[in-house]
Design goal:
The protein has helices spanning 5-18, 134-145, 179-193, 195-198, 212-222, 287-299, 327-337, and strands spanning 47-50, 61-63, 81-86, 94-99, 105-109, 119-123, 150-155, 164-166, 171-173, 205-210, 243-247, 253-254, 259-260, 273-278, 303-308. It is α/β, with parallel strands linked by helices. A hairpin with a 4-residue loop joins strand 8 and strand 9 (171-173).
């Protein structure tokens, strides 16, 4: 799976010449960031309301920290709130994005039918300004649990959990503390600590992320040193995922697609990784996937990448009749090939 080097070097060079990026360090000339991608089928404006997101009846949302999260929030913020989008009936009639998250949580959704012992932690996207909890969270889990996989939805701290575009200052902001990464590392450790309780194999815990969540996939795959002071015995457990899936990842290529994120080291023991993205993505340019796949391959890690001509951004499971809609089947085959399914 890793003999990608020659082809990737050519593709990366092509992408560097062609693509722009949503990311720019404060010292570089800022590149205006595209608007956050709302669910692709939402025709009416989103409605904002104050309240804590709640999972489906019967599911339990659990805080990941035993007390207050380390380092609090990026800046003072209001109570948790929701953006609700009107959706077609086949998608439940609505979908939601969560804003002003100060208490990060996880929600476990058990497998249906046969339990494979495999678990996947899903990191939704949202530009580290919000978390698209349905489109890139619970909807993904509904697909995974049908395949006997335990799914965990991560609701990590936002806004400012990681670097993001400030529309008022018109530049990229990189917080000194990566709170979303802290939450992601803690979630992996917590799930692994509960392997027996959840009836999962502690060596078959993967991560799957979309857009900004794809960046958390890259970070947790390569940054294994804790980004916070341990709070209990759980923090002695490894936060390295056993496999990783990044869908249309962002925040990796910088400076108009010419620079790889200098804060993202690539580990030789990075887990087997699956990457998929559309060439016409208007939010996170294709250089994110190309550069990350090339870096993993150069380090000797196993990487499989699929690029689609059309699909845009935030397609999730919404484009089943298009070629990009085949990515779930490709992921399932890949998981079987690497022995986790």
């Amino acid at each position: 799976m890793r003999r990608l080097s020659l082809a990737l070097f050519g593709l990366v060079a092509l992408a560097n010449a062609a693509c722009s990026t949503e990311k720019a360090p404060a010292t570089a000339k800022p590149t205006p960031a595209p608007a956050l991608a709302a669910p692709s089928t939402a025709d009416s404006p989103a409605v904002r309301s104050t309240g804590v997101w709640q999972p489906a009846p019967g599911l339990i949302q659990t805080p990941i920290w035993p007390g207050s999260p380390p380092d609090g929030t990026f800046k003072p913020q209001g109570p948790e709130s929701l953006l609700t989008f009107k959706e077609p009936p086949e998608y439940g009639g609505k979908s939601q994005a969560v804003l002003d998250i100060a208490t990060p949580t996880l929600t476990v959704i058990p497998p249906k039918g046969r339990n494979t012992g495999t678990a996947v932690i899903v990191f939704p996207g949202g530009g580290f300004q919000m978390v698209f909890i349905d489109l890139e969270g619970t909807e993904i889990c509904n697909w995974l649990v049908e395949r006997g996989i335990t799914c965990i939805v991560s609701k990590y701290r936002a806004p400012g959990g990681n670097d993001y575009w400030d529309k008022d200052l018109k530049r990229q902001i990189t917080p000194g503390i990566p709170r979303a990464l802290q939450d992601a590392q803690r979630t992996i450790r917590l799930v692994r600590s509960k392997a027996k309780e959840l009836n999962i194999d502690p060596n078959k815990i993967g991560v799957m992320g979309f857009s900004a969540g794809g960046y958390l996939v890259a970070q947790t795959s390569n940054i294994l040193k804790p980004t916070y002071k341990p709070v209990d015995a759980i923090d002695q457990i490894s936060s390295r995922p056993d496999f990783a899936v990044a869908l249309y990842p962002g925040h990796i290529c910088r400076n108009e697609g010419t620079t790889f994120d200098p804060s993202l080291p690539i580990a030789k023991n990075a887990p087997p990784t699956f990457i998929a993205q559309a060439w016409d993505d208007p939010v996170d340019p294709i250089c994110n996937s190309l550069m990350y796949a090339s870096a993993l391959d150069k380090a000797g890690a196993s990487v499989e990448m699929h690029l689609f001509a059309k699909g845009g951004h935030a397609f999730g499971l919404r484009k089943k009749d298009q070629p990009v809609g085949e990515w779930p089947l490709l992921v399932e085959r890949w998981m079987k090939a690497i022995g986790v399914l």
